[in-house]
């Protein structure tokens, strides 16, 4: 008998805590729908009490997702738990995840609480959450640096209080696989009621060991792994979902458990998260990097051609590579278009939205004869940016010539009024950004500029990411177009539009 390994995705909560990875409500819903399609068991949608924006995002995901359990994080405080329950109440299935730190340094220096007070507050929080649902998860924050005897005491008490999942976080990524695995085995052995809860792990990647620690925990009885797409997350990130899932699947000869994920959705989810957050995926990243299945050496290529398993332990198509299919063309009608996007998890809030995206699709089909799913995703991200469009690109002309300084001439509208501008720069993109700044004067600093081709070939759309910083606030913007410079201008304006929206503060960042 193989146990089920539950996959708990926290891209929308811990992943969003990566500096600069903040997502809008609509972007979060899009990612949540993609995770649901991949059959993720539990989606941590956010931290409902953090702000009105976080609350609304959790609520929107609870409404939109039907098949996965939707979860909200909450500190071990009644007001947090009440807010989480309120945001989640319309979900088909929901979980409340409450946490309180148990390591000496956190209890003394951060919480200023005694161990007895921590046990009491944790129990109270779990009991309170049980008033709303019988699906309650408790995390002893910084468990990886907590004293084992005290951890056993807390875990026993919260299981008695009704916690059904016990999540052991290595909050600061301090653990090593052998020790972390033993910690899980010890807790399962020593806590008398441990059989009444599912043990889970949540590992951070500060030493590059998040996946290894998670897998060691699974070998020692953990049956839920908390992870994120592309390993996004606070500081060095969390355990990467795709690596955990594919390790367990590829080494099914060793792991006594299996996930029920549709792994063919992995590459799609990875791209979606990367394009929305503006965090590029390194080419040599396991599973989802562009080179993950590319064989360069002649000996390897020859081996793979003779027999795939000589150099490949997984099939690229099993994680969603090479699924590039021409899906729509110039002659596709509106209904086929709508249906196809529905199949990709994209639904339109109104007929106007559909019309706008459809008309942009027709423009694209005029330029590019083969339209792939990836093109449609990029197009939708570009058109439905959902930010109030204070700034809009009306027209752009760039002149780039050998021996001459590139020059950009553009018109942007700001709150409906059009402004012409022009500037020179080191290159056409630099000139474009400088021209925009002559109107916007945003006082921002450009942190990251990235370009990604959506499909192969020089007719591909370019998906551009721009990360701006202003007074410590970091914002990502995206834009897509078959013209790289136009895509860049759009991405820059998208970031400026996001900067106008009020900032969301996170209670874990600013208590
Ligand atoms: O890293 C951590 O400890 C967390 C908890 C809130 C689970 O993110
Ligand atoms: Zn975390």
Helicity level? 25-40%
Looking at the overall shape, the CATH architecture of the largest domain is: Alpha-Beta Barrel
CATH topology of the largest domain: TIM Barrel
Q: Mind describing the biggest β-sheet?
A: 8 strands, parallel, barrel
- Rg of Cα set: 24 Å
Q: List all distinct small molecules, including ions and cofactors, that are bound in this structure.
A: 3-methyl-2-oxobutanoic acid, zinc ion
Strand order of the largest sheet: 2-3-4-5-6-7-8-9
CATH superfamily of the largest domain: Aldolase class I
> What oligomeric state do the depicted chains represent?
single chain
The number of helical runs is: 16
Spell out the blueprint of helices and strands:
Layout: E1 3-4, E2 6-9, H1 25-37, E3 42-46, H2 52-64, E4 69-75, H3 78-88, E5 94-101, H4 104-111, H5 115-130, E6 136-141, H6 148-161, E7 165-170, H7 177-190, E8 198-203, H8 210-219, E9 224-227, H9 241-250, E10 257-258, H10 266-277, H11 298-306, E11 326-328, H12 334-343, H13 351-367, E12 371-372, H14 373-383, E13 391-399, E14 407-414, E15 417-424, H15 428-440, E16 445-453, E17 462-470, E18 473-481, H16 484-500
Parallel strand pairs: 1-10, 2-3, 2-9, 3-4, 4-5, 5-6, 6-7, 7-8, 8-9
Antiparallel strand pairs: 11-12, 13-14, 14-15, 16-17, 17-18
The chain binds 3-methyl-2-oxobutanoic acid and zinc ion.
